[in-house]
Amino acid sequence: MNLFTIIGVLVYYPAVSFASALPLVLNTWSEDFTGATRTAFDVISQATGRGGRLDALEQGLNFCELHQCGGSVGFGGHSDASGEVTLDAMVMDGVTHDVGGVGGLRRVKRAVSVARGVLEHTNHSLLVGEAATRFAIDFLGFEEESLSTPESVEEQAAWVAGGCQPNYYRAFDHCTSSCPPYVLQAPGTRESGTGQQMERWGRVGREEHRPRYSPYVEEGSRQQQQPSNHDTIGMVVVDQEGELACGVTTNGLGHKVPGRVGDSPVPGAGCYVERGVGGCACTGDGDVMMRFSPSARAVMGMEAGMAPQEAAEAVVGSIARYYPDFRGGVVCADAGGGVGAAAWNLRLSFSTQSPATEGVQVYSVTPLGGKRGRAGDVARVS
């Protein structure tokens, strides 16, 4: 079976009319993340228009923010290097291209609701840090409360006791007495992609001169890919008329540098939608992925005629040309309810629900590249 045949198999609902595939909810991850899928679908099944799409996104993503999906989304998840938990979130409407986002939000649990407030009650697209918190409390009426839990405090203490390793600082030859130790990361030499994959997408630069970037660090480390690393949920909603919206919420990397804002609240990085075309959402190594505007590029690929699966694969492959060790995934839906997903060095799963499914359907994606990949170079969904 050649590549294009396999891609054809991965475009969902091939025998279903567009009307019966809508409305659709698609989001990253599975297990307790399916509660977000179900919540959003219940809303979009009964609602129409922009308000219905944003209600579905907000309530679906709120589910994970308040239930700590995967033990990592929302409050009590990964703290930064100073021990504080902060949140990033975004919502985008495909009809108007209106966007609202927050980065580094402090002491407010429902980050995606604050992001919607930015969209609906300001002329801005992104608010960050303490000022975003003041906007949420003073203008939107949100309650101020700690985002830490006994578990997050314990995790931070264990990290400090372990010499603050791993961390995301590098090339600080001074301040070596501080924690984290500001030491230069060893340059990466491992090449994750197979020769066939790298021939397919090409290779740019010399890998031996690139430091490793990964929220999952090294094989065997305590931050190796685990359910607790799934700290981002991205969602795409397609209503009964084929209109789209997307949203993302996350608490970011564990032990990130204080002040770091990831890809999630950045339109075109965390998620992106285009009227009449489709939408995509991303998860994984946001510091690398945001450099490529992956969700926007995937949607543009669909606009140019690619199927959702083909667009998703093209995007992760284009990132791997520069960073073959990165770990990340993309989920895409077109305006008719077709779905695709691809991942690189990441065991991605995703959840969908539509009238064409019996409840929430969960799929796993075999990653392109890396020794964690199974037989074959093409992402396969089961």
Automatic annotation (TrEMBL):
Q: Which SUPFAM superfamilies does this chain map to? A: N-terminal nucleophile aminohydrolases (Ntn hydrolases) (SSF56235)
> So where does substrate get bound?
R260, V261, G262, D263, T283, G284, D285, G286
Record-level Gene Ontology MF annotations = N4-(beta-N-acetylglucosaminyl)-L-asparaginase activity
Identify the catalytic residues. Answer: T232
Task: Report the protein name in the record.
Answer: N(4)-(Beta-N-acetylglucosaminyl)-L-asparaginase
An example GO CC term for this entry is: cytoplasm
Name the species this protein comes from: Nannochloropsis salina CCMP1776
Do you know which InterPro entries this protein is assigned to?
A: Ntn_hydrolases_N, Peptidase_T2
Organism's domain of life? Eukaryota
Site described as Cleavage, located at D231, T232
Transmembrane segments annotated in the record for this chain:
none
Query: Which lineage is the organism of this entry classified under, starting from the top rank?
Result: Eukaryota, Sar, Stramenopiles, Ochrophyta, Eustigmatophyceae
